[in-house]
TrEMBL record:
Start and end residues of each Methyltransferase domain: 52-142
Species assigned in the record: Streptomyces viridochromogenes (strain DSM 40736 / JCM 4977 / BCRC 1201 / Tue 494)
GO MF annotation list: methyltransferase activity
Record keywords, A-Z: Methyltransferase, Transferase
Origin superkingdom: Bacteria
SUPFAM superfamilies noted in UniProt: S-adenosyl-L-methionine-dependent methyltransferases
GO biological process: methylation
Protein name as catalogued: Methyltransferase
Signal peptide as annotated in the record: none
Amino acid sequence: MTDADFLIETRTFYDTVAEDYAVHFSDPLGARPLDRGLLDAFAELVGVGGEVADLGCGPGRVTAYLASRGLSVFGLDLSESMLAIARRENPDLRFERGSMLDLDLPDGSLAGVVSYYSIIHTPQDRLPEVFAEFARVLRPGGHLLLAFQAGDEPRRYEEAWGHRVALDFRRRRPERLAPLLEAAGLSVRSRTMREADEELGEPTPQALLVARKRAVPETGAGQDAEA
């Protein structure tokens, strides 16, 4: 599958189901105190004074939550229908259309990146490119929060809320993603795994990683220290 294929498939899926999705997941954090706790911790790690991007923001609920925690945050998504909902519900926040594979952002411009269940449609062989983009736009010392379903077997949906659609939902193992993040210059600081909550309809355990972009050492610093 080419970049264009999976991006088009993802955008078409969410353009089709956007309004139903927004109703079904009207309060995605309300019954998930552990997830809120990690988002709060991320907000504290990032602190004030830097910009944060919520990549794959969907209808903007996580974007709005982070904004309520004092962060200067904007959302980015492939789906214009999802963005329309995000803008309608959060007129004071900025939402843009774009792809995680090609972020229209300067190098080192962000204090934080959130990828909240937004890598779940990305083919495995494209993840290094996505993580390289995350690292590129983060400033040294900037933080990444990455959330995803934990597991091995993907699931393909060809129907959702009465719509004929087609999209793969890929599950990942934290221990397999950590080396890819490290290779991109993002040191994993925290790994959290919680069991699936049957009352919330979660079919798999949920994983959240926090990583930090490594600072670039000054040229000659080691030699000077030993001299």
